[in-house]
Amino acid sequence: MSKRVAIIGAGPAGLTAAYLLGKANIDTVVFEQDKQYVGGISRTENYKGYSFDIGGHRFFSKSKEVEDFWTEILGDELLERPRSSRIFYNNQFYAYPLMAFEALKKLGVWQSFLCVLSYAKAKINPIKNPQNVEDWVSNQFGKRLYSIFFKTYTEKVWGISCKDISADWAAQRIKGLSLSSAIKNAFIKPKNIDKDAIIKTLIDSFRYPKKGPGMMWEVCRDKCLQMGVQVKMNAGVKALSFQNNQWAVTLANGTIENNFDFVLSSAAIRDIVPHIHPSVALDVKEAATQLNYRDFITVVLICKDKDSFTDNWIYIHDPNVKVGRIQNFKSWSPYMVPDASMACYGLEYFCFEGDGMWQMKDEDLITLAKTEMQQIGLEDANLVVDGYVVRQAKAYPVYDKEYKEHINTIRKALKNYHGLYLIGRNGMHKYNNQDHSMMTAMLAAKNIIAGNELYDVWNVNQDAAYHESGERGEDEGGRLIPMKNE
Fold first, then answer.
1. For residue 255, what are the contacts with CB-CB under 8 A and spacing of at least 6?
2. Looking at the structure, do residues 91 and 198 belong to the same domain, yes or no?
3. How far is CA 131 from CA 146, 147, 168, 169, in A?
4. Burial class (CB in 10 A: 0-12, 13-18, 19+), 332
5. The sheet that has 342-351: what strands, in order across it?
6. How many CB atoms lie within 10 A of CB 335?
7. pLDDT confidence of 348, banded at 50, 70, 90?
8. What angle do the packed helices 12-23 and 64-74 form, to 10 degrees?
9. Which residues of 95-124 are buried (b: 16+ CB within 10 A; e: fewer)?
10. What is the extent of the structural domain holding 74?
11. Helix (H), strand (E), coil (C) string for 329-346
């Protein structure tokens, strides 16, 4: 029996599903609200020949299926890139992930002693059943080290107190490491480490498309089109209707497309669930509208390349500047900068859509970025020749104290709507990397192709593995892992 599938969103999840369904000769239509770009937050934008990543996306996964997918799409257009990043704190640069002894040395003898003492106190008298980031991280590293290397940056990113962020997020990003394990591993380094044993945030190299992550999804889209998949741009979805086991999709312009057997949605839950007909219960609508998101702005600076830094990115823990992270696009890929005598940086400012930062004029944001680059000591403001601003809404789903209860309420209610799959980061309100988003899409596509519910997409863990714990052991390099957004 023929099947017809609607996919909301042409990001990694949506296009992965579209590609696999297209290969299976299933009638598929992708609806993307952006007028120009595919890839979602993994897109690559272009300004005067300069290409830039929205957020920094490494192509590395423990899933062979995901890695094979990337290879199938881009092949030799994927570069092998060295990983290099640092933390800027208290006017000093620290290797990231933190090298335990370098960090303690730069902090000074007295501060280091207090950090170790604080950690010992946490081990003797830990906070029982930690519910928030502050308590969870303090248990793992001690309150003082938490205050130095976690609190400022985390609160800059999320815009709320660490006491209001669920411990789930901390456990997900750190994966069981502590100060003692980091120091121990500085002396004892396991041999023959295989890929599955590596914590993804600690990798030394990764693959990366020549022209940025958007290149992956632009080529994927083109391959989808060749297989007969429809990819409709400037086609935001306003509502969904379910009747007689068939779905109808209502677009923002009022157009209605009917006769879909399945809908795969990577759109933000808050934007979709309240607009399903017949309507979900009032408490389910309220749960969806209570989900929160963090947004950010990338200010791109094009500069003369004079003694530029070589990091892929630098995390800014200094509370005296507003910038949270700085990308160096030339270090991601030299093909992203058309003139070898120039450099191109992206300064990321975390905010909420509609707040004062979000509403600043582009020229004021560019001036701010130039000033802060010089204040940090990374670039002379006089070397900046041009700038560009990108605003990214709903970049990060927020793990506040109530989010899990809201998601559980929504998941139970949606079981009554046959053929609807929530996939991807915003589609599932999971703070994940693109390989996780892709795996949820792969499993949804497998279910549709097989005509059977073989997989529950919610059982994909953060390593893009199905029905595995994701706990892979400790870092072999004696490095601490502050939680970062990558």
1. none
2. yes
3. 16, 17, 8, 10
4. buried
5. 92-95, 85-89, 313-316, 325-328, 342-351, 293-304, 384-397
6. 17
7. very high
8. 80
9. ebbbbbeebbebbeeeebebbbebbeebee
10. 4-81+209-290+400-455
11. HHHHCHHHCCCCCEEEEE
Residue 272 lies in a domain: yes
First to last CA, the chain: 42
Q: Is the pLDDT of residue 425 over 90?
A: yes
CATH code, domain carrying 217: 3.50.50.60
Q: What is the pLDDT of residue 481?
A: 47
Non-local CB neighbours of 113 within 8 Å, separated by 6+ positions:
none
Gap between the Cα atoms of 12 and 175, Å rounded: 24
Contact present, 212 and 53 (Cβ < 8 Å): yes
359 CB-contact burial (10 Å; exposed 0-12 / middle 13-18 / buried 19+): exposed
Cα torsion angle, 408, 414, 420, 426, sign: negative
Cα gap 337→49, rounded to integer Å: 7
Tell which phi-psi region holds residue 318, choosing left (phi > 0), alpha (psi between -120 and 50) or beta.
beta
277 shares a domain with 408: yes
Within a domain: 463: no
Both structure tokens of 154: 């985390």
483: closest CA among 92, 172, 196?
Answer: 172
Strand order across the 246-251 sheet: 256-260, 246-251, 237-243, 276-277
Residue 143 covered by a domain = yes
Same domain? For 68 and 148 the reply is no
Is the same domain home to 307 and 279? no
> The tokens 């929504």 sit on which residue?
410
For residue 165, is it within any domain? yes
95 and 31 housed in the same domain: no
Strands 420-422 and 262-265: parallel
Confidence of residue 480 (pLDDT cuts 50, 70, 90): very low
